[in-house]
Design a protein that fits this description.
Layout: H1 3-18, H2 23-33, H3 42-49, H4 55-66, E1 78-79, E2 83-84, E3 92-93, E4 96-99, E5 105-111, H5 118-132, E6 145-151, E7 163-169, E8 175-186, H6 187-192, H7 201-213, H8 225-232, H9 240-249, H10 253-279, H11 282-310, H12 315-322, H13 326-336
Parallel strand pairs: 5-6, 6-8
Antiparallel strand pairs: 1-4, 2-3, 4-5, 7-8
Helix pairs in contact: 1-2, 1-9, 1-10, 4-7, 4-8, 10-11, 11-12, 11-13
Length: 337
């Protein structure tokens, strides 16, 4: 199922549960309708790729993203606590954090919403994980760090590449420091672009994941890691307890945004149409709809931010949920004190 369908399933489960309805029947109906979960959902992604039982599958996926082969391949991973404490003020929690046998750290992030501070956050995460992975002692020697961002927006819209490897370089494009690498994978660019001839392992992974998200699984070699993902992503494998917990906790960020945006869109359209009719001009209707959509969505987003602040949610999480700027969120926070 895709992102919206997964969000709709959680909404329905939540409503049935709150009403004291038949949860077993509700989930069974979704299992009959859909075979696969939405892979890029935060909790689903962590269960699939952050599970020690799936270590070999995760290693294969990381090798594809980082273009590692031969002796450089990751063949063993240890998953570590994804939360990094409040050094440099903020505490951060990445989606997946693992170390290879050389204790080099790999951080994997899935980002759905483009934010004006996202590049700042990636640099900040890089700094925090560099410190967190540093061996104790007086030496300044650092271990390698690979921070990967799978993102649903384009970081380099003018580039034909959908994968970008970023390191510190000088003005002559000579690498200054090779131990910190940020890798961006622009998923929409790959899916919508002309990459049919791309048979790289990363392209294969992205096609397989997209096929599962759209209920159209692609053919893959039996016993391969790609085939394992297709098996592990079946909706029937995820327990009712997990799905109910997800629905009630609203752990999927899209769930809250889906509901709030849906309401804001409806209210904005109604306000815009009313204003447009009062003015009696097509121009007024267009302006009214635009203003209504904007005002409605902003009001809902600010209200959501206020509630999340009252629950002591991290600022960066609130920004991603609401799509408000950091300045707006801090302003709301100040008004609560």
């Amino acid at each position: 199922m895709n992102r919206e369908q997964y969000a709709e399933m959680l909404r329905t489960i939540s409503e049935v549960h709150k009403a004291g309805g038949d949860i077993h029947k509700c989930i069974r109906e979704y299992r009959e309708k859909y075979k696969y979960v939405y892979i890029y959902n935060d909790s689903i992604f962590k269960m699939l790729f952050g599970n020690p039982n799936n270590m070999r599958m995760t290693a294969s996926f990381l090798n594809a993203i980082l273009k590692l082969d031969g002796g450089d391949c990751i063949d063993n991973l240890t998953f570590v606590n994804p939360a990094v404490d409040g050094a440099f003020v903020k505490t951060t929690t990445s989606d997946i954090v693992a170390e290879n046998k050389r204790l080099e750290r790999i951080v994997l992030e899935v980002q759905h919403v483009e934010d004006e501070t996202y590049s700042d956050r990636l640099v900040f995460y890089t700094a925090k994980h560099t410190i967190a992975s540093k061996p104790r002692g007086d030496s300044y020697w650092l271990r390698d760090l690979n921070l990967i961002s799978l993102q649903m927006f384009n970081g380099f819209p003018n580039s034909k590449n959908y994968r970008h490897s970023i390191r510190l370089k000088n003005q002559d494009n000579e690498e200054f420091f090779k131990k910190q690498t940020v890798t961006l994978v622009e998923i929409p660019k790959f899916l919508k672009g002309d990459y049919a001839s791309d048979e790289s392992l990363l392209a294969q992974w992205l096609r397989v994941i997209d096929g599962l998200n759209n209920e159209t699984p692609v053919a893959v070699p039996e016993e391969s890691m790609l085939a394992l993902l297709q098996k592990k992503a079946e909706l029937s494998i995820f327990t009712e307890e997990f799905l109910v917990s997800e629905a009630m906790a609203m752990s999927d960020r899209q769930y809250e945004m889906y509901v709030e945006k849906k309401h804001a869109r409806k209210e904005g359209l109604e306000e815009g149409r009313a204003e447009g009719r009062a003015e009696g001009r097509a121009e007024g209707r267009a302006e009214g709809r635009a203003e209504g959509l904007t005002e409605g969505a902003t009001a809902k987003a600010r209200d959501m931010a206020k509630k999340m602040l009252q629950k002591n949610k991290p600022i960066e999480e609130i920004i991603e949920f609401t799509e408000l700027s950091e300045t707006e969120v801090l302003s709301i926070k100040a008004s609560l004190t």
